[in-house]
Design goal:
The chain is 21% helix and 28% strand. The protein has 221 residues and is of the alpha+beta class. The chain has a seven-stranded antiparallel sheet. Strand 1 and strand 2 form a beta hairpin.
Length: 221
C-alpha cells in the first residue's frame, strides 16, 4: 500500500474506543489540526489517486460521497472526507458498525440522535425509536458517537465534513428499512445498465470531480 509522505498523523495516538469522552478529546484534536493543515489535507486528497487501497475505500453512497484520506489499521482508525450529501436520502435513521467522530468544515445540518426501545444489536424500525437529542451543526462543530447510537443528519447541499472512524465493532449496521429511500434514488452503477447501488467505490472521474469540488470551495490547494 502506498502511503503519504510522513506527517504528524503517523504519530497520532489511536482513539480510545472504550472511553467515549477520551475518544472525543483525541479525535477532536486530530480533526481540528487536520482542518487547519491545508497542505497536508491537500496532499492526502491528491494521494488517494496513487493508493489503490484508499481509492477503493473512497465511495459513492446513497447518503453522500466520501474520500478515504488516511488509513491506520494498526492503530484502529481511518480518516475520511465526506461531501455531496443527498438531502432527500438523509431521513432514514441508522447506526454504524463502528464508533466515529466528525467535524464540520462547510455547510451544516440538523442532527437527530434517537433512542432505541428494543435493545441495541438487532434490526429496528421507525416504531422502535424515540427522539432523543436534536442539534444544529455548523462549521467547526464536532461530536462523537458510539456504534450503538441511531442518528440522522439532514445536511445542507454543500456540507463537507472530516470524519474519523474506529474499527468494526459489530457485524452489521442497521437502518429503519421501511424509511429507506427507493432504489431509483441510489447512485447509478459504475457499469452502465446495471442496477443502482446503495454504496460502491468511486470511479476515477468521480474522484476527480470530488477533488475539483474541494478546490472550488477553497478547502484544498
Amino acid at each position: 500500500m502506498l502511503t503519504s509522505t510522513a506527517s504528524w498523523l503517523d504519530a497520532a495516538p489511536p482513539p480510545d474506543l472504550d472511553d467515549v469522552r477520551r475518544m472525543q478529546r483525541i479525535s477532536r484534536a486530530m480533526l481540528n489540526r487536520l482542518a487547519d493543515d491545508r497542505p497536508l489535507l491537500t496532499q492526502l486528497v491528491n494521494d488517494v489517486l496513487r493508493d489503490p487501497d484508499r481509492l477503493s475505500a473512497s465511495r459513492v453512497t446513497l447518503l453522500l460521497n466520501r474520500l478515504s484520506l488516511y488509513q491506520a489499521p494498526d492503530r484502529g482508525f481511518e480518516i475520511r472526507l465526506n461531501m455531496n450529501p443527498r438531502p432527500d436520502n438523509q431521513l432514514v435513521p441508522h447506526d454504524h458498525c463502528y464508533a466515529f467522530a466528525t467535524r464540520i468544515l462547510t455547510g451544516g445540518y440538523v442532527h437527530v440522535v434517537r433512542r432505541r426501545t428494543d435493545g441495541w444489536t438487532v434490526p429496528f424500525t421507525g416504531a422502535d425509536l424515540e427522539q432523543g437529542i436534536v442539534t444544529v451543526e455548523r462549521p467547526d462543530s464536532a461530536y462523537t458517537l458510539g456504534d450503538s447510537i441511531v442518528h440522522q443528519a439532514v445536511m445542507e447541499p454543500h456540507t463537507v465534513t472530516l470524519f474519523v472512524r474506529g474499527p468494526r465493532r459489530k457485524k452489521l449496521s442497521h437502518a429503519a428499512e421501511e424509511l429507506m429511500p427507493p432504489p431509483e434514488s441510489w447512485p447509478a452503477a459504475a457499469t452502465p445498465g446495471d442496477a443502482p447501488e446503495e454504496s460502491r467505490p468511486c470511479t476515477l472521474a468521480e474522484y476527480q470531480s470530488m477533488r475539483t469540488y474541494l478546490i472550488e470551495r477553497d478547502l484544498i490547494g
